[in-house]
Amino acid sequence: MKFYELGRSMVEMLGVLAIIGVLSVGAIAGYSKAMMRYKLNKQAEQLSTVINAGLRYAKHWNFKNVQYVNTIPYLIKLNEIPQEMIKNNSTSVIYDVFNNSMYPVYTINGNGDIYTQFFIELDTSKDDQYSLSICRNIVNVAKEFHQSLRSMSIISGSSGDGYDANNVYGDSYCNTSNKCLKDITVTDIDNWCRYNAGKTSTPHIKLIWDE
After folding, report:
1. What is the band of 61 on the pLDDT scale with cuts at 50, 70, 90?
2. What residues contact residue 156 under an 8 Å CB cut-off, 6+ apart?
């Protein structure tokens, strides 16, 4: 055997490198999808925790002579908020795994109606497809609470851009003229989330439950 026959040709080496490159791209894509699934599951867990805490204490708040009270500080003191959702020692806003901010507000309107408004402000720095997945996830979690919530709105951040649009209602408030939260479809969710994706103003989802 001649000495030069022991080596590999440049074409063979390039072929091996190409195969390694393709496998690496596939591995990275698979990891990204797995990480996204993990984060969506984590977000659902975090959101459910906060909603359940809000509902559990709803009948116990007894704020006097107020119109609005952010209940995050109280829920933190009650150890109802996971530590991972508290950033920069803030006691007024908490964050999910995707950095969406959220806060429940105890509210008494002019008619004496008492309820909590739970705002979830979507992080608009994400690309549209990424934002769509996150928005869908939040709505699907909210849908699971159709028996307890008064309503849900998928809204943009300014009054001139559909503020308080797309209201759907929990079981006790929906009827023939109000769309039921439990009945919203995948198409409904996609239409609403696509409408809000990429907004220059801050889009958010608002949940309301009774006190």
Report:
1. confident
2. 162, 163, 165, 195, 196, 199, 201, 202, 203
Q: Which two tokens stand for residue 11?
A: 């074409």
Whole-Å CA distances, 129 to 15, 194, 199: 34, 9, 13
Q: Tell me the two tokens of residue 178.
A: 């109000």
Q: Is pLDDT at 161 greater than 50 in this prediction?
A: no
pLDDT (tens digit, 9 = 90+) per residue, 169-181? Answer: 999 999 888 889 9
Q: Where are the domains of the chain?
A: 8-210
Average pLDDT over residues 141-162: 78
Average pLDDT, the chain: 82
CA dist., res. 59 & res. 28, Å (int): 48
Three-state secondary structure call for residue 151: strand
CA 210 to chain CA mean position, Å: 21
Tell me how far apart the alpha carbons of residues 103 and 45 are, in angstroms, rounded to a whole number.
16
Residue of 106, 107, 120 lying closest to 47 (CA atoms): 120
Cα(151)–Cα(207) distance, rounded to whole angstroms? 6
For residue 194, the surrounding DSSP H or E stretch is helix 186-196
Structure confidence by residue, pLDDT tens digits, 24-56: 666 665 778 899 999 999 999 999 999 999 999
Distance, CA of 200 to CA of 124 (rounded, Å): 8
- The 8-class DSSP code of residue 160 comes to G
Tokens coding 169: 């209602």
Fold of 8-210: TcpA-like pilin (3.30.1690)
